[in-house]
Amino acid sequence: MWGKFKQKFIGDKNFYKYVLYLAVPMIVQNTITSFVSFLDNIMVGQIGTEQMSGVAIVNQLMFVFNVCIFGGVSGAGIFGTQYYGKGDYEGQKYAFRFKLYSCLLIAAAAIVLFGLFDTQLISLYLNDTGSVGDITLALKYGKEYIIIMILGLIPFAVSQAYGSSVKETGQTFIPMLAGVAAVFTNLVLDYVLIFGIFGLPAMGVQGAAIATVIARFVECLIIVVWTHCHKEKNPYIINAYKGFFIPRNTLKEILKKGTPLMVNEMLWAAGMTVIVQCYAVRGLEVVAAQNISSTISNLFNTVYLQLGGCISIVVGQLLGAGKTKEARDADNKMIFFCVFSCVCIAAVMVAVGGFFPSIYNTDERIKELARHFITIAALSMPLGSFSHCAYFTLRSGGKTIVTFLFDSVYTWVLVIPFAYALSHFTALPIVPIFFLVQFTEIVKVIIGFFMVKSDAWLQNIVNDAPCA
Question: N or C end of the chain, less CB within 10 A?
């Protein structure tokens, strides 16, 4: 029995060597990013609860933008990965163009939205319950922060279009290098600008925003320059700007498969924001506590998020090469490896996560609430890991309508009404509400298990998407 289990779910040395070759740079990049975000969060938190809450709310809005950008690159990314596996660099070039156009369009829309409706958007998360903090000050600091953060949307969009295409070729080191340079730039400038070091004025939340924007430009510059200076490793970039043409058949297939995925990412991100808003009706202390909790969770979630993301690269390349049997085998082993790693990390998070809130200079009630949120997030993490793997498995084979139903429709039909009803129509404290909402993930795990097991996702989609 062990032999069959091992054969199905545990890979050999070469398998893990390749997976880790892809995953480790991505994990390092995102771990450093999350850790610097954690330090950034602490530095803003040292100024005050209102400042931390205002920045946290804006970052929640920026999260929606970031995920929309992810959706913009994901639709074409399915084709880009399979085109690369097939050896069709011309097709990958058209996928890159589509990503660039999509990302710039999303960034332009976000600039208009955040610029014109900043007060209304931030106010959605502010409820005067007479609890900890002043919501008027939180709104003020949030507006100061978002008006500067808008300047970093375009470079972020461009770097994601380039970075995702580079990763599709299996080159994950350069995006990691660009990301690491950006986060260290952000960290140093955060310290200098927030607190006013080296004779500079203390700029508070505005300093934090300026640091982030400069870091966005650093990341974009590195990855764009490297890509164009290494055309032999990125043949799709040759003549990428010689015209703006995308063949009709290719565009049609990308839109057909990619649009549900882009819409899914946008609706899912908006859904996560609505859930946070449901929690926020219980007071500013909940906003602050969840900000602390989510920052810590992001730090620990990095491994399973990046291992899950590697599924789209490994499995997508195998499907593009027509190796469906190998794709199924690799998927089994990657899902098991990802979930097993996540269980180990979740155990560490439960053991040490409660110490992190003590670092923040905020009210003791907020710290205690954050400790409860961190524990619950850790306990639900293995469920999220499997759902994440199922999502990328379905996506790698172009099952974008299915992923739309599995992800955003599930969130809006089940999770959001449940969270809204608990927060608005019951007297339950926020901790049990958070627990119940987090563990709705069990339903998604069951659905994901049967969808992956069906093998309906084992499809080569690029043979059906000619480039001319």
Answer: N
Flag whether the pTM goes above 0.90: no
Q: From 445, 456, 172, 466, select the one nearest 327 (Cα to Cα).
A: 456
Among 92-96, 354-358, 410-414, 436-440, the range scoring the smallest mean pLDDT is 354-358
Tens digit of each residue's pLDDT (9 = 90 or more) over 258-307: 777 778 878 888 888 889 888 888 877 887 888 888 888 888 887 877 78
Q: Is the per-residue pLDDT at 376 higher than 50?
A: yes
User: 67-102, pLDDT tens digit by residue?
Assistant: 888 888 877 887 887 788 778 888 888 889 999 999
Q: How far apart are CA 41 and CA 20, in angstroms?
A: 30
- Cβ contacts of 147 within 8 Å, gap of 6 or more: 115, 118
Distance of CA 332 to the CA centre of its chain: 23
| Mean of per-residue pLDDT scores for the chain | 84
Q: What are phi and psi of 277, to 5 degrees?
A: -65, -35
Long-range CB contacts for residues 273-277, cutoff 8 Å, separation at least 24: 273/60, 273/61, 273/63, 273/64, 274/416, 274/419, 274/420, 275/411, 275/415, 275/416, 275/419, 275/437, 276/60, 276/125, 277/124, 277/125
**Exposed, middle or buried: residue 181 (CB in 10 Å: 0-12, 13-18, 19+)?**
middle
pLDDT at 4 exceeding the cut of 80 = no
Half-sphere exposure of 58 (CA within 13 A, CB side): 30
Element (H, E) at 185: helix 173-195
State both tokens at 145: 């922060």
Ramachandran bin of 454, using left for φ above 0, alpha for ψ from -120 to 50, beta for the remaining angles: alpha
Cα 158 from Cα 69, distance rounded (Å): 10
Distance CA(237)–CA(174), nearest Å, equals 15
Which amino acid is it at 75? G
**Residue 100 tokens, joined:** 């660039």
